[in-house]
Each structure stands twice: as C-alpha cells, then as structure tokens.
Specification:
This protein is α+β, with helices and mostly antiparallel strands and about 260 residues long. It has one domain. It has helices spanning about 30-40, 55, 70-85, 105-110, 155-165, 165-170, 210-220, 245-265; strands at about 5, 25-30, 40-45, 45, 60, 85-90, 115-120, 130-135, 140, 145-150, 175, 185-190, 195, 200-205, 225-235, 235-245. Strands 1, 2, 4, 6, 7, 8, 12, 14, 15 and 16 form a 10-stranded mixed beta sheet that branches. Strands 3-13 form a two-stranded antiparallel ribbon. Strands 5-10 form a two-stranded parallel sheet. About 25% of the residues are buried.
C-alpha cells in the first residue's frame, strides 16, 4: 500500500507558477453526478444566474449621460450579455505539496458533504473549443462598486467587444472571501458541455469501504486510480494524505480476518 502524498503541517510546499498552477484541475461533485460525468465524459456548463456568489449574481454597471432612458437600456444590455455566458468551476493545486483534491472546504461545499467524488483532470488533455474562455480566478481585497460602461457602446457588436475586452475583471476576479476555492474557470456563450474524455487522470473519495467506492472501482476498472483522501496522524498532528483505496481496504480486511482467526483459535 502506497501513500501518494502526505503533507507535514510543519513544512510548506513551494508555490506553483505559470502553467504549473493549472496543470492538474479538480472537479468536486456528488456520487450520482459523477456517474453521469463518467459515462458521458463531459462536464456541463452551469447558468451563471444560479451561482452562489452574490457579487457575481448581481454584477453592477454604470454609465454617465443625461439621457437616462438610453443609459438604463445600455446597462441592461451589457448585463444581459454577461449573464449569457455559462461557466464551469474547477480547483487548482494549492502548492507543490497540497493537491487540489485535499481541500476539506471543497469536500464540504461541493463534494456532497464529503460523501461525493473529486475528479482529477489533466489540463493539456481537456478539449477546449475556440468559443470557450478560460483562466485562473484572481482574488482581491475589494471589488469595484460597478463596471463603467462608455456611452460609445451603441451596438450589439460593441457591447460584445466591451465584455470580452474586460473579461478578466468581469468574469475572472473575485473577493478574497472565495480564495480557498483556488478556482480555475471556463466560460462560454454557446457550449453546453466540456469534453474531458481524454483528461480524467484519477478519482478521489473519502471512504474506501463505502458502496460508492466499490461501485466506482468497478465502473472505471483499471483505467485510472481510485484514491482515498484522508488524514494520517504524524508527530502528534493530523496530516492530509492520499492512498490507493482498494489496497488499503484489502489490507485492513486481511488484518481484521487475521485478528478474528486468532480469537477463534
């Protein structure tokens, strides 16, 4: 049985830079949704109107003109353009020691209260369409009160160009409150699904003896590892770790059987 990663709380991992940050990406979901994802090999884009960040669900825009009616219509048009984009949110590795599948917060929020699944993806093997935009999210202390819209935006094409030009500020900037999500975001106006058929590199669960874990192992076969995220005591503290789910389960079962046999002799 092999522990792939164990984080010593007394040590710090080295910061990741450039493309290292998103070389591996992680998607937390429920067991039922994982099954659909595995069978389809696709991630579904979500409606931005249903996101959980109050600032993103109600983006504010402003413009200055004596023509209040046209200004209102302009701001509404820009807002409608932004909510026409759908998104997929993934988690990146935090540093060289802490993998993106090792976040208790993410397991609690998006991994069905740790009863779900975390899917690991190789960024280089994700099939991105030209219509998709993607970038890591930048976290800031304060957001602007509103995005200023120039009055020159007098056509649909100009509005679309404005949104694309300011995409980093509009779509890829969030408050520090969300920093723990370490998000990498993909957005699109026209695509409904992201092709990950060649990108899935590992599956993570938190219970190696659960019926869901056994089903996942049967479902994926030997195509990719099925690992357990857990905490291992070391030097008087609990350290995040990852291990092969099947190997540790069989080892524990054998130890239990040996103990039972000793008691019965």
């Amino acid at each position: 049985m092999k522990n792939i990663y164990i984080i010593n709380r007394d040590s710090q991992g080295q910061p990741l830079t450039g493309e290292q940050k998103h070389a591996k990406l992680y998607h937390y979901t429920s067991f039922e949704t994982f099954v659909r994802i595995w069978l389809s090999k696709q991630l579904k884009f979500g409606d931005v109107k249903n996101i959980n960040d109050i600032n993103e669900s109600n983006r504010m825009f402003s413009s200055y003109s004596l023509d209040f009616e046209n200004t209102f219509l302009l701001m509404k048009a820009v807002q409608n353009e932004t909510i026409s984009y759908k998104q997929i949110s993934l988690t990146m590795d935090f540093d060289t020691l802490k993998k993106g599948c090792m976040s208790p917060i993410m397991w609690g929020y998006y991994g069905d209260k740790r009863n779900g699944v975390c899917i690991e993806l190789d960024f280089d093997k994700i099939i991105f369409e030209n219509s998709m935009l993607y970038h890591k999210v930048k976290y800031v202390k304060h957001l602007k009160e509103s995005h200023h819209i120039p009055q020159l935006l007098n056509s649909v094409m100009n509005i679309q160009s404005y949104v694309l030009k300011n995409k980093n500020e509009i779509f890829f900037t969030k408050l520090n409150d969300w920093k723990g999500e370490n998000e990498f975001r993909i957005i699109s106006k026209v695509d409904n699904f992201l092709d990950i058929s060649k990108a899935i590199s590992a599956i993570y669960i938190t219970k190696n003896d659960s019926q869901e874990c056994l089903f996942i192992e049967q479902l994926v076969g030997k195509s990719i590892p099925v690992n357990e995220f857990f905490y291992e005591p070391k030097n008087g503290i609990k350290n995040p770790a990852i291990r092969d789910a099947k190997s540790i389960r069989e080892m524990l079962d054998n130890a239990k059987n040996d103990s039972t046999n000793v008691l019965n002799t």
